[in-house]
Amino acid sequence: MATITKRKVKGHVYYYLVEGKRVDGKSRLVKQQYLGRAEQVVARLEGQPPEPTRVRVAEYGGSQALLSMARRLRLVEIIDAVAPKRDQGLSVGTYILLAVLNRVLAPCSKAQLHEWFRHTALYHDFSVREGDLRSQRFWDHMGYLTVDRIREVERRLTQHMAVEFDLDLSTVVYDATNFYTWIDTQTASELAQRGHQKQHREDLKAVGLALLVTTDFNIPLFHAVYPGNRADSQQFQSVTEDLIDRYQTLRAHCDHMTPERSPVFGNYNMFTVVGPEFFASNECRDRGDRPRRVAEPRGRPPVGAGLTKATQVIPEMRVLGNNALDS
């Protein structure tokens, strides 16, 4: 809260605008601005404003647009609910948000995060000290995000996003790829492995990444990372249960996702066609049912092409094939 205080120096009274905040449970002075003597304050209020003595230029548009979207997504709120910590300093969600904004706007090392931050208008939105954005502090907070917590954050985030933005989830697309890393050969890693590298860098270790996205704007709904030496077909079989769980979670919160509007998971030139009766039943796992896989030529086939008669009767089903996200 900002207040005006006066100080007496050598018999003269001067006025200051001061602002204090509680930091780590203690009251701290975070801003102080000299206003002058009483007659100077009155003259400024009654006359023309003085010329600025200095100007601070900061990035504004991009950071504020992304911050507005993050607030609409409730990103910080969701992360903090899943990964709570003591009410001391920045929260886990705030650290992740600042790292995301930096990665989108001006990627740099974590050691340079504060230097980037102080050249943006974000200092109006977050009370951040220089020591808060040291690289070690960032990695300390990353330790709160275990694999299970990351999955829970993703589940809550996609669930809220589907409702908030009224996403069309009648057809979704699944695809997998991999990307190379600069992880040293001698560094032990379960994820970074040598295998078929799609960017033709077999000399480097790769990590696999699978995504489930919407057909509109390719909004991610599910992700999985896996060893770079695992074939995409093997990975697809291993995440089938997870894809079903995510679909059922989203369907419970979206009016337009009903058993009559079932998704198609497209993976390269193999399509996994899931009928409405599969998702409608709560006993699908107990019966041992699995999605049917139908081979198709590469590219996008016409709706219903090459599908079995039982599959063709599924209403409002669309099939997307290889390179569906690029078309």
Can you walk through the features of this model?
With 327 residues, the protein is of the alpha+beta class. It folds into three domains: 2-46; 61-142, no CATH class; 167-326, no CATH class. It has eleven helices and nine strands. It is elongated and about 80 Å long. The two termini are 53 Å apart. Residues 258-264 and 266-327 have low confidence and may be disordered.
Structural class by sheet pairing and helices: alpha+beta
In round numbers, the mean pLDDT is 77
Q: Calculate Rg over CA atoms.
A: 27 Å
| SS elements, strand count | 9
Q: Stretches where pLDDT falls below 50 for ≥5 residues? A: 258-264, 266-327
Order of helices and strands: EEEHHHHHHHEEEHHEEHEH
> How many structural units, i.e. domains?
3
Proportion of residues in helical segments: 25-40%
Shape: elongated
N-end to C-end Cα span? 53 Å
Strand residue content: 15-25%
Largest sheet: 3 strands, antiparallel
- How would you write the strand order of the largest sheet? 1-2-3
**Continuous helix count:** 11
